[in-house]
Automatic annotation (TrEMBL), chain A:
Species of provenance: Malaciobacter mytili LMG 24559
UniProt name for this protein: Protein-export membrane protein SecF
Keyword Cell membrane annotated: yes
InterPro entries: SecD/SecF_arch_bac (IPR022813), SecD/SecF_bac (IPR022645), SecD/SecF_CS (IPR022646), SecD_SecF_C (IPR048634), SecD_SecF_C_bact (IPR055344), SecF_bac (IPR005665)
Domain Protein export membrane protein SecD/SecF C-terminal as annotated: residue spans: 110-291
Quaternary data: Forms a complex with SecD. Part of the essential Sec protein translocation apparatus which comprises SecA, SecYEG and auxiliary proteins SecDF. Other proteins may also be involved.
TrEMBL record, chain B:
Function: Part of the Sec protein translocase complex. Interacts with the SecYEG preprotein conducting channel. SecDF uses the proton motive force (PMF) to complete protein translocation after the ATP-dependent function of SecA.
Protein keywords: Cell inner membrane, Cell membrane, Membrane, Protein transport, Translocation, Transmembrane, Transmembrane helix, Transport
Recorded family membership: Belongs to the SecD/SecF family. SecD subfamily.
UniProt KW Cell membrane keyword: yes
Organism: Malaciobacter mytili LMG 24559
Gene Ontology cellular component terms for the protein in this record: plasma membrane
Residues spanning the membrane: 351-371, 378-398, 404-424, 452-471, 477-501
GO annotation, biological process: intracellular protein transmembrane transport; protein targeting; protein transport by the Sec complex
Protein name (database record): Protein translocase subunit SecD
Subcellular location: Cell membrane
Membrane topology designation: Multi-pass membrane protein
PANTHER family associated with the record: PROTEIN TRANSLOCASE SUBUNIT SECD (PTHR30081:SF1), PROTEIN-EXPORT MEMBRANE PROTEIN SEC (PTHR30081)
Length: 323, 521
């Protein structure tokens, strides 16, 4: 079975401007959503309290609301269904740092009149912890980008590095835009998902870039556009296949993984789609837009080779003792 | 071409390794190392506690003030106005000639900055000593909490220090709200026992006195534990503190109420004996965590260094206080910064949901690979299955904890692990189309694909390392799973499948049916 004929070369670069245009629109729209609507930070980052409660029968959400309304300390509680009709999540913005008087004990008493239930999960994150986590998350993202820049510059060339980072920023911004658009709660596992995307999207891009590098080194072709078209076309099967297998898994995770993993799976879902799109249509365009020069690259490579040969020659002479 | 090549041998060894070491985790046997389930999967309590280290500094200052007082009394030195102002102690001596003695004594304590202005001493901790005291207070808090939880009889509590002032406490398998509550109370109880002298001269003015006035006499006002309206005026500098307690047990008084008997160490016993001898007829307040439990009048010298705390404990309370006293006081109070408690049923649900996703996703990928690549797909699937076994084994060997995001990491690895084989097989197909012989196509396919796979995997690995360095709990687990997954896939998908092809080479060369082998015509 085959999806794409490998010998067919598609003219991606000829149509790169419309795709860059589409990406720009998505990117700008994401930025606008992020700045106007913002991210819905969950308690991991914003601090606060979450209580997950499972009732024996259908959860009496309106009763819970009425009961909590009467207590000033829970008046601002947000109550929502969670995964199934029996389960409810109660969110509070405040936290208590006192170890001996705990919110889960209190909520048990307060809700006693609403029916038989079991407290399944209580998460309390203080503001200090939330702030630290947010800081660390941004740090991790920044550091990851720097290390990728260094590695790709070292293995390829600086323009490849810039292009791959631009593709990364493109993918992650759009994924975050989707998080904001659908008001997905951003928690630690979402951060993990975003960092996974970082790896995944980079993976895809690098496979394509590797082909481009190979094309530059092996073929006689002097037009970058042609080499890029060839390389992207040749990796098309692989890109779609791997995305497809990963997609299968993420979709099952999204459908059957349960409510807790929902946000995580959603982020990956969006990310895989965007990542696949960008490694086919966008990443290499950046390379072309950055005016990567094949002749410069080849002469540099030739220079490198020459230097290495010379070194070997000198070494050989030295070893023979005929300096 | 020989059938047994080094790649295949390594691959077979890794299959054996993977299967053998993952048996304990899959079968949940009691022998061998298993993956331990994270609190989010098995249920339990996770807490991040912040030690209020400033309090440790204050209490150290207090202890030093006590030492100065008793040194002066022992040596018959005349000092006046001994008081604590924030983080420093001031006092005045009456005889300038006695200054050297005091200076020698303070030097012996160490870590102090001593200023002498005319007759007034000003003593405070050096900056280094403050840092050391804070550091020590966290270390001691970890030790104390660990001791208490051990004595409480919980299964496998984990108490680890995190950063400068924080402590992570994990209690797997807490089943009920009551257990959780008891554990929290036990952890948070400072158990700071102090024996303090009641200021008999001014005791009757206590109800009209402000805190500031009390402080001006070197006194503090404390409440009674049972009745907050009953107040006591006691000397701020305690006679003894909890550091001198070496044992505490629950006992019963004449009316069969639970009380706590405590035993002091030798220096504590001596100070206690001397003090009681000198103060017959006066009252001694037994203060626990800033509340007065009783204030009996001293009738005679109490030697032997034991005393009791009475004051309306329930049996459980008395037991917990005794545990807390025995395992030492918390040098500073702890605050709850983060708490995550997961009920056992939720954990079980999470495992089930992610198992369903894992198996379904896995089946989808396996079937797809066979349909698309035929034999090459089967070979890739062998690598994939081995990969999962190896991940489980390695995680078990390192005693890693499997969390929900970690589980997601495994699921994701399944999707991505076939990537290397997809790249390789696509390359082989490409070369076959160019008309190369199968044997040559396989060899070149592997070498052509290698650079791309390495570059792609190394960058992902770098990201995982950063995740590990900067992440906390669940993210760390996720990073570990992904890293192990990548390394294992290099072993299985690159080396392992290559070995299989080499072994099958005679057959492949004879057969020449590339449709059957690689799914292309």
């Amino acid at each position: 079975m085959e999806i794409f004929k490998t010998d067919r070369i598609y003219n991606f670069m000829g149509r790169r401007l419309p795709f860059l245009g589409l990406s720009s629109i998505l990117f700008i729209a994401s930025i606008v959503i992020l700045f106007t609507k913002g991210l819905n930070f969950g308690i991991d980052f914003a601090g606060g309290t979450i209580i997950q409660v499972k009732y024996e029968k259908q959860a009496p959400i309106s009763d819970i609301r009425t009961v909590l309304k009467t207590k000033p300390e829970y008046a601002n509680a947000i109550i929502s269904e969670f995964g199934s009709k029996e389960e409810v999540v109660i969110r509070l913005s405040g936290t208590s740092s006192d170890l001996s008087t705990d919110i889960s004990d209190k909520i048990h008493n307060v809700l006693a009149s609403t029916g038989n239930f079991e407290v399944r999960r209580v998460d309390i994150v203080g503001p200090k912890v939330g702030g630290e986590l947010r800081e660390k998350g941004v740090m991790a993202l920044g550091l990851a980008i720097i290390i990728i820049l260094i590695y790709v510059s070292f293995r390829f060339e600086w323009r490849f590095a810039i292009a791959s980072i631009l593709a990364l920023i493109h993918d992650i911004t759009i994924a975050m835009g989707a998080l904001s658009l659908f008001s997905i709660e951003v928690n630690l596992d979402i951060l993990a998902a975003i960092l996974t995307l970082l790896g995944y999207s980079l993976n895809d891009t690098i496979i394509v870039f590797d082909r481009i590098r190979e094309g530059i080194q092996t073929s006689k072709e002097t037009l970058l556009d042609t080499i890029v078209n060839e390389s992207v076309s040749k990796t098309l099967s692989r890109t779609t296949l791997t995305s497809l297998t990963t997609f299968f898994v993420v979709v099952t995770l999204f459908a059957f993984g349960g409510e807790i993993i929902h946000g995580f799976a959603f982020t990956l879902l969006v990310g895989i789609i965007v990542g696949t799109y960008s490694s086919i249509f966008i990443a290499a365009s950046f390379l072309v837009q950055l005016k990567f020069s094949i002749t410069d690259f080849r002469s540099k490579e030739a220079e490198k080779l020459k230097r290495q040969k010379e070194k070997e020659k000198i070494r050989a002479m030295y070893e023979k003792g005929t300096v | 071409m020989k059938i047994l090549n080094y790649r295949l041998i390594i691959f077979i060894l890794s299959i054996i390794f993977g299967v053998v070491f993952s048996i304990p985790s899959f079968m949940q046997t009691n022998s061998g190392k298993k993956i331990s389930l994270g609190l989010d999967l098995q249920g339990g309590l996770h807490m991040l506690l912040g030690v209020q280290t400033d309090e440790a500094v204050t209490s150290k200052i207090k202890t030093i003030a006590t030492s100065i007082k008793y040194f002066a009394e022992d040596e018959d030195l005349l000092i006046e106005d001994l008081s604590i102002n924030g983080d420093s102690i001031t006092f005045t001596i009456l005889d300038k000639d006695e200054a050297p003695k005091i200076e020698t004594m303070l030097e012996k304590i160490g870590g102090l900055e001593v200023g002498l202005d005319e007759l007034t001493f000003n003593v405070s901790l050096t900056d280094d000593e403050i840092v050391r005291t804070k550091d020590l207070s966290v270390a001691q808090a970890v030790e104390t909490i660990r001791n208490r939880l051990d004595q409480f009889g919980l299964a496998e509590p984990t108490v680890i220090r995190q950063g400068e002032t924080d402590i992570v406490v994990q209690l797997p398998g807490i089943r009920s709200q009551e257990d959780e509550k008891a554990a929290r109370e036990l952890i948070s109880k400072p158990a700071n026992l102090e024996l303090m002298a009641v200021d008999e001269e001014r005791a009757d003015q206590v109800y009209t006195m402000s805190d500031a006035q009390a402080a001006s006499y070197g006194d503090i006002i404390l409440e009674d534990v049972k009745n907050p309206n009953t107040l006591y005026l006691v000397k701020e500098i305690p006679i003894l503190n909890g550091e001198q307690v070496i044992d505490a047990k629950v006992a019963f008084d004449q009316s069969n109420q639970p009380i706590i008997n405590f035993t002091l160490n030798s220096s504590g016993a001596r100070i206690f004996g001397d003090f009681t001898a000198k103060s017959i007829g006066k009252r001694l307040a037994v203060v626990l965590d800033g509340k007065v439990y009783s204030a009996p009048s001293i009738r005679e010298r109490i030697g032997g260094g034991s005393g009791q705390i009475s004051g309306g404990f329930t049996m459980i309370e008395a037991g917990n206080v005794a545990i807390a006293l025995r395992s030492g006081a918390l040098p500073a109070s702890v605050k709850l910064l983060e708490k995550r408690s997961v009920g056992p049923s939720l954990g079980a649900d999470s495992i089930q949901a992610s198992m369903v996703a894992l198996i379904l996703g896995f089946v989808l990928v396996v079937v797809f690979m066979i349909v698309y690549y035929k034999t090459a797909g089967i070979i890739a699937n062998i690598a994939l299955i081995t990969n999962i076994f190896i991940i489980v084994s390695v995680m078990a060997m390192f005693g890693a904890t499997l969390t929900l995001p970690g589980m997601a990491g495994i699921v994701l690895t399944v999707g991505m692990a076939v990537d290397a084989n997809v790249i390789i097989t696509e390359r082989i197909r490409e070369l076959l189309r160019q008309g190369l012989s199968i044997q040559k196509a396989i060899e070149d396919g592997y070498s052509n694909a290698m650079r791309a796979i390495l570059d792609a995997n190394i960058t992902t690995l770098l990201v995982a390392v950063i995740l590990y360095a900067y992440g906390t709990g669940p993210i760390k687990g996720f990073a570990i799973t992904i890293s192990i997954g990548i390394l294992a896939s290099m072993l299985t998908a690159i080396l392992g499948t290559h070995g299989i092809y080499e072994a099958l080479m005679p057959k492949i060369s004879k057969d020449k049916n590339i449709k059957k082998w690689f799914g292309v015509s």
